[in-house]
UniProtKB/TrEMBL annotation:
A biological process from GO: organic acid phosphorylation
GO molecular function (one): glycerate kinase activity
Kinase found in the keyword field: yes
Record-given protein name: Glycerate kinase
Domain of life (superkingdom): Bacteria
Keyword Nucleotidyltransferase: no
Amino acid sequence: MRYNRIIIAPDKFKGTLSATRAASAMYSGVRSALGDSIQVLKLPLADGGEGSLVALHSLRPKLNLCADILPNASGLNRSVCYLANETDAYFESARLLSLNFRDNRRLPLLDRRSSGLGRWVQHMLTQQKRNLFLFLGGTAVCDGGLGILQEFGFQLLDGKGNQVNSLRNLPNARRLVPPAVFTSIQANIKMFSDVTNPLLGPTGAPKLFGPQKGATPNDVALLEDGLAQLSLLWAEFAKQSDTNWPDGVGAGGGIALPFLGMARKQVTLNSGSLFFLEESGLADTIRPGDLILTGEGRTDAGTLAGKLVDAVVHLCRKVGADCLVISGAVADHDRLEAANYPKTIAVSSNGSVPSRKVAADELCKAVSRVFTGV
């Protein structure tokens, strides 16, 4: 089929290529096969996880690049970049709390904390920012925001009035006590998740993502009980009759929970993928007759739970544009077929994501083969 345009809109290829480098490799592959015979646009995106800040800065270059010194998941201070203007500030949790950082991996999961994110929010409130944008995905923690809670001066007490300061004792928490002087959050906190997963249950933060972060079966059971108790206490504090938090609250190890509990009226939790589709203008750009190339490091059943590739696939379906997914590796073909996915191609032939050293070249070649049939 002859297309009017090709729009390249990938996510990062986790661990190997940023979304920008992936888009460039795809672009080279298209040009290698088709030359200058067709208009090709590059639009690297993100989903609310790793790479969100870079993608946003490419879309809004007038935002100022700033830095803060904050504790990472293991409690060690590190310099972290964020974006800001006079009224708004944007923070990517993975830039501080990512499992990719050795310091964050050196402690067991039960000892890692989200405190640094809470401290950054407090710094921005002190600067009287009106809107805080938090990208939640890609963290090494699963503390349900326990560190954030503590940064804001809240205390957890067990049935005997003893403080609960550890995830190991979290199932024993019975009371959530605010600080003596608690000023409600005045800024709007807009959170974006890279998944639609709930806090608890088979697809929740402890059971699904805990093992990926190093949790043992005993850790998972403890975290499931502890986060369930924390969820109940925040619902009581927020005067909610239930614990029906928004979709995606399981992102980042449940770090959205304290913000939802502290300031429900000022806080929203939405899809990071949809945020970037809107921010980039892609939703208004594509039309029938276009071909959209998208991809990620690994396309599998997890892609269906709010990832960027899934959002692009649904957008194309809605508009009537064709879509082609080219990812580092592809798995769970039956689940993708059941979801009526478009043609999905793996760069790798052995099921593993290509190494960082060859990833760009291999992606370029894979895209070129699609259009030449070689």
